[in-house]
User: Fold this.
Amino acid sequence: MDHDFDSTTSPSISMETPRNALHSAILAIRQKAGLVAIMVVTADGNLLAESGDFTGVSLTALSALSAGLYAASQEIARLIGENEFKTLLHEGEGRFLHLSAIDSDTLLIAVLDDPSRLGMVRLTIRKGHPSLKRALARFNRIAVNIEPLEDPEFKDQALRAVDELFSGGR
Assistant:
């Protein structure tokens, strides 16, 4: 959409929504780090934003399981005398899962397929944290003023997705 504004006299107005800002922040991290996919989830497993190839992946199950995994690892850290584990890395045959806390309420989940890029992933996430935190703060300011979307079926859907994941769809 074109507007007839004189850029020399009119102030610049950003029309980017908080959700778009969050998506832009994770897209930039994904592209700079060469990630297959990336997502931001709440500590209780709700998906906030995602970018990349999640073909064939239940985002509900991945979000919930990753949040549970991170919470469990924090308890393990406390048991061995650490305050926290800042980062978790899971290594598969072809893919790697990198989990890190953005803040106490939000997690970043990155999927990569090249282990030689792990250092670049960590550096890019660290450097991208400020813009990601700003986007999250903006997103959360808006979300605080909105009644939470209560989906009475969410818990049942999440439990079914986890059951299917572990039962192999049987």
